[in-house]
């Protein structure tokens, strides 16, 4: 399945069991009372829970240790040590957990609120009370706690793009992605800066809904025949809800460029031609004449809806996002905006 992979290796450690106590109760006039050392507490477990509100694994730091609490030692008077607290880690639905050594799949989260106990805490040790018997009235030993599970895993999440940004090299696709999401793609004033797709997440209306945006490499005429960077990366946008065709307003040849882009897309997979799209003209900041936008709109209105932005100067970006909501996500946003 075409996807972007969000992946992070982490170390998981369940709590160590607390040691059992060696203790004898004290009574007046009796040098040694009977044994009364309590058991140690169990170590905490590490538990993974899927939560649909979480979209990425970016909360996890690579190679960090995530550990549950150790059990506390037992004590006199047969007091049981406190159990170590469990560590609960939230992951997005769709997360797969792989053993970092064998790369075997340990678990696959498919539903919200699904729970997987990934690491079990060590059992607490028995206190010396436990070892008292008719032949052994005063055991002076107890058990240590057991080790908790401790190993490394890889959390991996496949993200599908909801929106694709398509355009010629240098149109400002990566700049746009960097302004509407937290992604940091490479941006530069030459062609083919982006060599493989970048993905970012747009958070809308107080985070009530989110979608992913893919910035893909520039496309030139003949890309479907392997010119430039080719078009194999289009697999990443085969399933999008909509396409933003982005153009460089400083060097605009709208009709020919749109036709060329759509030809290349259609050659790869005709389904891409059926996707809703918006025509977005970037770099409007370099125009002196404010009437220019109206002129373009009038002239090219048959091509589709045309928007004007400056990604770099952040002009009209909120308007662009509103149009994306309405045009590409009419169902989701109806609920949010019309209630
Ligand atoms: N004046 C102006 N320049 C912009 C704007 N947006 C992007 N640029 C510049 O255009 C150049 C190309 O930007 P990128 O975002 O790397 O373009 P791209 O479409 O991702 O290019 P490729 O990855 O090569 O296909 C950079 O020098 C940007 O700073 C804008 O709104 N106004
Ligand atoms: Mg780029």
Automatic annotation (TrEMBL):
GTP binds at residues 167-174, 192-196, 215-218, 282-285, 310-312. Mg(2+) binds at residues 174, 194. It holds the Pfam family GTP1_OBG. Residues 2-160 form the Obg domain. Keywords: Cytoplasm, GTP-binding, Hydrolase, Magnesium, Metal-binding, Nucleotide-binding. Its cofactor is Mg(2+). Residues 161-329 form the OBG-type G domain. It comes from the Bacteria. It is found in: Cytoplasm. One of its GO terms (biological process) is ribosome biogenesis. GO terms for cellular component: cytoplasm. Its main location: cytoplasm. It is an enzyme of class 3 (hydrolase). Belongs to the TRAFAC class OBG-HflX-like GTPase superfamily. OBG GTPase family. PANTHER family: DEVELOPMENTALLY REGULATED GTP-BINDING PROTEIN-RELATED, MITOCHONDRIAL RIBOSOME-ASSOCIATED GTPASE 2. An essential GTPase which binds GTP, GDP and possibly (p)ppGpp with moderate affinity, with high nucleotide exchange rates and a fairly low GTP hydrolysis rate. Plays a role in control of the cell cycle, stress response, ribosome biogenesis and in those bacteria that undergo differentiation, in morphogenesis control. This is GTPase Obg. It comes from Leptospira ilyithenensis. The gene is obgE.
